[in-house]
Specification:
The structure holds 2 protein chains of 2 kinds. Chain A is mostly beta strands. Helices cover about 0% and strands about 45% of the residues of chain A. Chain A has no helices and 10 strands. In chain A, a hairpin with a 5-residue loop joins strand 4 and strand 5. The radius of gyration of chain A is 13 Å and the shape is globular. The termini of chain A are far apart. Chain B is an all-beta fold. Helices cover about 0% and strands about 50% of the residues of chain B. Classes of the chains: A mainly beta, B mainly beta. Chains A and B meet through strand 4, strand 5 and strand 9 of A and strand 5, strand 6, strand 10 and strand 11 of B.
């Protein structure tokens, strides 16, 4: 597609339930990133995929969070046993290969509300 | 570790007013610096960037100069428009790293 697509755009879930957030990066973009934007906070790095390399998971806040990227394209961020503090906007971004300096292209995000 | 601090909002200005949004950073080496903008209901977009000291990034009338001596990258615009109302994020990308570090964002409201 023309941009990074994320789904759903909004998700309300009950505390303790599992959720899956999906990201479709721009075709041909080898790098994919997940960030979290909590209310009043900056953007927090979660995880980074680059091609077939092992992902950089250093930003995942707990073992309830996991992400995978199938076929080097679509990525799914899974949050297990959701907690209220998980409520945030989850942003996905992608960038093309060979980008040493430059911006990402971000999706519009998934707003997750845990009640 | 690397970090970015930007002024808290919201910032409310009248149309045609001068805008400054302050951003300072902490980083080792020579990071690249960025400003991103998020318009209502849209995703983040790259607004401008600077990759080395004294570089000036500019786009859509916005400017920011990479000041290593003051570790700053303040965003300025001489005459804001209602359409500039958005949230602005300052960010840095550390030397040799792929992760960005973002400020908390500054919401700008421009009134007609």
């Amino acid at each position: 597609g023309a941009g990074v697509s994320q789904s759903p755009s909004n998700k309300v879930t009950e505390k303790g339930k599992d959720v899956e957030l999906r990201c479709d990066p721009i075709s041909g973009h080898t790098a994919l990133y997940w960030y979290r934007q909590s209310l009043g906070q900056g953007l927090e790095f979660l995880i980074y995929f680059q091609g077939n390399s092992a992902p950089d998971k250093s930003g995942l806040p707990s073992d309830r969070f996991s992400a995978e990227r199938t076929g080097g394209s679509v990525s799914t961020l899974t949050i297990q046993r959701t907690q209220q503090e998980d409520s945030a906007v989850y942003l996905c971004a992608s960038s093309p290969p060979g980008t040493k300096v430059g911006g990402y292209t971000f999706g519009s995000g998934t707003r997750l509300t845990v009640v | 570790g690397d970090s970015v601090t930007q002024m808290e909002g919201p910032v409310t200005l009248s149309e045609e007013a001068f805008l400054t949004i302050n951003c300072t950073y902490t980083a080792t080496g020579y990071p690249s610096l960025f400003w991103y903008v998020q318009y209502p209901g849209e995703g983040l977009q790259l607004l401008l960037k600077a990759t080395k000291a004294d570089d000036k990034g500019s786009n859509k009338g916005f400017e920011a100069t990479y000041r290593k001596e003051t570790t700053s990258f303040h965003l300025e615009k001489g005459s804001v428009q209602v359409s500039d109302s958005a949230v602005y994020f300052c960010a840095l990308r550390g030397e040799g790293f792929n992760k960005f570090y973002f400020g908390s964002g500054t919401k700008l409201n421009v009134k007609p």
